[in-house]
Design a protein that fits this description.
44% of the residues are buried. This protein is globular. It is 48% helix and 13% strand. β7, α11 and β8 form a beta-alpha-beta unit. It has 18 helices and eight strands. It has an eight-stranded parallel barrel, surrounded by six helices. The chain folds into two domains: 249 residues, TIM Barrel (Alpha-Beta Barrel); 71 residues, Four Helix Bundle (Hemerythrin (Met), subunit A), CATH 1.20.120.1460. By secondary structure, the chain is α/β, with parallel strands linked by helices.
């Protein structure tokens, strides 16, 4: 793993379906030069047979950026990983944590926690055909598994296949009885177990995920011995709170931009997208939380929500929304 990618993994934004698309990642990258960004999960068959430019296309400005794959067939995953590496992704991540019914029916996601040997085979197959790191995002266990027993075995088997970085969502996944949304909140968090894994596997890069919402919490985990932290919904809903100070506090890079600067930096990107036939709301839906908790935030959200879908909407629409924020702050 390159030193710069390892450094980026100190703080990452979680892969989130319907949210972390290329527009979201470009927006997040303007707020932090160092945070590691992830795609939405894309299945191996979709990569192999689908519209690759639509599924995998991204801007060079997004680096470091990782693609998350869903699948359980080693040969398929190897083929998909090679395609993704050729697209220029910095990392291939295997999803072993998603509990949705659709994912289970494909025998991948969190259900793979029940088959460490298969995950190891998948990792080995991908590692054999790509030069970029192959990583795993997992849960601490599923259903009636005892996490303290199965997680060390899972990590040991999968790391022996060539995975040296794991992101551990510190909750069980219940494959029956809880919805995907409930699986993000209901099972109790066990951060202590993640710390114990670092003690057992000091040579591995271990990040914690689940329930982390602030940079203060992030720093406590890093100071407590973990190698990285992954933040999901908080980074999406309150991006300025999580990302604007990340470079200074987590990566020791002193320059910090303001939220209003981010809007102005997005203007050329928005103008280019609209000029090429894109719709404004495809971008601004990711920007609604930019001023969360600040004066003018409600008008910002309201104006964009009411106007970004219009045929005439463009960068001027965003600047008009920003003017309400600036007036409220004056």
């Amino acid at each position: 793993m390159s030193d710069t990618l390892t450094k980026s993994a100190r703080l990452s934004v979680a892969p989130m379906m319907d949210w972390t698309d290329r527009h979201c990642r470009y927006f997040h990258r303007l707020m932090s030069r160092h945070v590691l960004l992830y795609t939405e999960m894309v299945t191996a068959p979709a990569v192999i047979h689908g519209d690759r430019d639509r599924l995998l296309g991204f801007s060079d400005a997004e680096h470091h950026v990782a693609v998350q794959l869903g699948g359980s067939d080693p040969a398929q995953l190897a083929e998909a990983a090679k395609i993704c590496a050729d697209f220029g992704y910095d990392e291939i991540n295997l999803n072993c944590g998603c509990p949705s019914d659709r994912v289970q029916s494909g025998s991948f996601g969190a259900v793979l926690m029940e088959n460490a040997a298969l995950v190891a085979d998948c990792v080995a197959a991908m590692r054999a055909v790509v030069d970029v790191p192959v990583t795993v995002k997992c849960r601490i266990g599923v259903d009636d598994q005892e996490p303290a027993e199965i997680l060390p075995d899972f990590i040991a088997r999968v790391s022996s296949a060539g995975c040296d970085r794991f992101t551990i969502h510190a909750r069980k996944a219940w494959l029956q009885g809880l919805s995907p949304k409930e699986n993000r909140d209901v099972p109790p968090l066990d951060y202590l177990l993640v710390h114990e894994m670092k003690g057992l596997f000091p040579h591995l890069h271990l990040s914690v995920n689940g329930g982390v919402t602030t940079l203060d919490e992030t720093l406590r985990f890093l100071e407590g011995g973990l190698d990285g932290v992954m933040i999901g919904r908080a980074a999406y809903h309150s991006p300025a709170e999580v990302l604007l100070d990340a470079d200074r506090l987590v990566f020791g890079d002193g320059e910090t931009r303001s939220a209003s600067e981010i809007v102005h930096l997005m203007v050329p990107y928005i103008a280019d997208h609209v000029a090429n036939g894109g719709r404004l709301h495809q971008i601004t839906r990711h920007m609604l939380g930019l001023f969360q908790g600040k004066a003018g935030a409600r008008m910002w959200r309201r104006y964009l929500s009411e106007n970004a879908h219009k045929d005439s909407a463009n960068e001027a629409t965003v600047l008009q929304a920003l003017s309400y924020v600036m007036e409220a702050a004056a």
